[in-house]
Amino acid sequence: MTPVTMIEGALRDALPAAAFRDLEPRYLEEPRGRYKGEGGFLIAPASTEEVSQAVKIAYEAGVPVVPYGGGTGLVGGQIAGEGVQPLILSLERMNKVRGVYPEENVLVAEAGCILQDLHGVADGVDRLFPLSIAAKGSARIGGNLATNAGGLNVLRYGNARDLCLGLEVVMPNGDIWNGLTRLRKDNTGYDLRNLMIGSEGSLGVITAAALKLFPKPAHEGTALFVVPSPEAALGLLAMTRAHVGEQISAFEIMHRQGWDFLAETMPQVRLPYAEPPEWCVLCDIGLGRGLDPAEALEALFAEAFEADLVTDGLIAQSEQQRIDLWNIRENIPEANRLIGSVSSHDISVPLSLIPEFIRRGNAAMAEIGDMRVNAFGHLGDGNLHYNIFPAQGKSRDDYEDKRSAVKKGVHDLVYELGGSVSAEHGIGRLKVKDLEVYGDPVKLASLRAIKQALDPKGIMNPGAVLAAS
Amino acid sequence: MTPVTMIEGALRDALPAAAFRDLEPRYLEEPRGRYKGEGGFLIAPASTEEVSQAVKIAYEAGVPVVPYGGGTGLVGGQIAGEGVQPLILSLERMNKVRGVYPEENVLVAEAGCILQDLHGVADGVDRLFPLSIAAKGSARIGGNLATNAGGLNVLRYGNARDLCLGLEVVMPNGDIWNGLTRLRKDNTGYDLRNLMIGSEGSLGVITAAALKLFPKPAHEGTALFVVPSPEAALGLLAMTRAHVGEQISAFEIMHRQGWDFLAETMPQVRLPYAEPPEWCVLCDIGLGRGLDPAEALEALFAEAFEADLVTDGLIAQSEQQRIDLWNIRENIPEANRLIGSVSSHDISVPLSLIPEFIRRGNAAMAEIGDMRVNAFGHLGDGNLHYNIFPAQGKSRDDYEDKRSAVKKGVHDLVYELGGSVSAEHGIGRLKVKDLEVYGDPVKLASLRAIKQALDPKGIMNPGAVLAAS
């Protein structure tokens, strides 16, 4: 591919001076440190028109374009491949909220808006924008959509895909698709919106989106339930549904390994049990008027205790207690990072097979070597973060020779159970090979045909999702 | 294109005798009588493998394939174009439920299952499958997905797209894509599922789907609210949301024209007011445990009355009263049919612009001629059925010369307001030109490129969605 140096002059002619920024190291790094960019040329356009002009120039010359949001992706989708000198197209200056329509429950925002800022905008009109991920303070909505982000509230509100009504996209040839509709229903042709969502910048650059807002639940409640097993956790989920229907906002499972990691690396995080429970569930419910969530959670606890689905539990009695309980869950990824994993997995299986996955996965890992397993995550979605760590006193470097066996063990099991090796993080560059090995071949052939049809020169984020051709 | 007669022999060799059925007239007709097929060859395979074999044979020979579900589509997507002798591929024998997973809230069904039968299957495990359309007694789920059907409960549960987790599809070359996952989260590559949903059989044949089930609301309530205007109806929607959050299952607006048509054509339908209200709203709510919907609706009525958003109303006190109220709404399409429209429109606009659309649309129609307008439908989704009828004593034939002006008047206004000329019925063959005129040109170019990429010979339902090439 043509290196970006060939079009720097044309870009400087076409865009205002403010669009050019220094290529600081952060644009070439990603959170897990597995990919490192080898340079490129950074622009930060301020408008869709400027994005379009820049992409047109790259398209004409055949220069690769890597769209860059908040840089928080966990699969290397934001870092160009080896030897590639791309145009790095940061959306950071496209951070305007174009419109708020509380009477329609709609917000129209540019791609560079920080996720947490959008929470604030929604809050300002007494609405909820429910997409919530650990990186919400720096992740940008364009990247959230490009990767179809998941997070804590998928169970109730869906993933990023489900929260988007319309998109504005600069296509690989620089044309602007104006699909920024605020419509709830629109059956006019193939679903280009959902094709762009989750394409990880490899089919175009998302520049703006119309997003769904929701009424805020009148009353929210949080409980930590100690459960005897993952099976019991599933039983508790079904019972919770019977009690409050779809009004479960989050249903997260945690293994004691995560608590042990917290105690080891982040002693400032308050843990409510001296002896951490083997398994527990953190459950949020949000109810409408006329109902008291603490009462609802108490009734649930009583019935679940009777049915041997829970053995102990805590119902938050104040906002501070809710925060403390969520602090446990939300700090587990950081504790994991501090310990340093041998291999991390973002998997999903059909919900009812979660206990089997954990049982067989743990057995397979034990056969490979002496390792610690931290399984936690979005049980309500059938989505676990299944992360493998060195034994106490050892480091990840001691396991270099085991990493591929670990990955294969996990992925083979996921595949056998009809699951996904990337539930919410996407393919990026990290899992391109996995998609080739585990993906349905007919699907793969279709994806390649679509990529070729929409991006015939292969300039959009080459090597992400599909191997560069 | 090659006529199907060229491959009849090969099909007879490849498929069992039971796959061949007489081409009864119903396969060549559609509900509104605007399209009439000119023949073809009918097969009704019993398995995905048989569908695959048949499509492979058609693909090799370049014979057009028209997938056929329940035949209830309203835009002619199920009827081949002029002069085309297609392979008509009915899914009617693929009507098995492959699995029910109440603990996962999932149902896996073949494409030929009748929608209403799936309601029964869900009910049998105390769950809800919420997709509900007027034609539910004969529509098949494969067709519902191929057209991304909407209906009454989109406001709460989403359209067909939102209710589908996985698909099995026979691609245009006969290959089988096994995407029949029961996963809630799967970010492995582009969203082929949503590309197939809503493609109206022009990118492949859906043979099975994994569908989402929901907990049944513990208590359901129905009210008919008389509102002074469409603006007030929107205010009432917002107030209802503030009262019960997302637990509004349906929110339908009706104009008195529909009631007058009912009185004229279907006097057996019970109407609760001697003098029909100018505008009214039919609202369903479904609440969880511990709440009484009648009480909730009474509290809503009191507050709305105080705010001048409603002037009168009825809260159903029994299941029979609920049925009677819904009978009004559900019989309006049949009454419309009996009157005979000049032109029917399935439009959506941003929710807050519905009143403006009605005001300006009615004014535009009055300028064209003396006509009756029946505006009704899914207000909660911003989706109206805006249908234009002859003046009393005249027939639709008297308006032949006005039809195109009516269509243009409605569509221009929809376009100006950022709406859609096909909110839920799809493009089919009826609206191919409209898509060309009103569709975003960059989107259109992308759709054509996708069609060409996945169906290079153009055999799948040629002329549906996009003009045949």
TrEMBL record, chains A, B:
A Pfam family found in this protein is FAD_binding_4
Q: Does the keyword Disulfide bond apply?
A: no
Per the database record, which ranges form the FAD-binding PCMH-type domain?
35-216
Record-linked SUPFAM superfamilies:
FAD-binding/transporter-associated domain-like, FAD-linked oxidases, C-terminal domain
Indicate yes or no for the key word Ribonucleoprotein: no
Q: Provide one Gene Ontology biological process annotation.
A: respiratory electron transport chain
Protein name stated in the entry? FAD/FMN-containing dehydrogenase
| Native source species | Donghicola tyrosinivorans
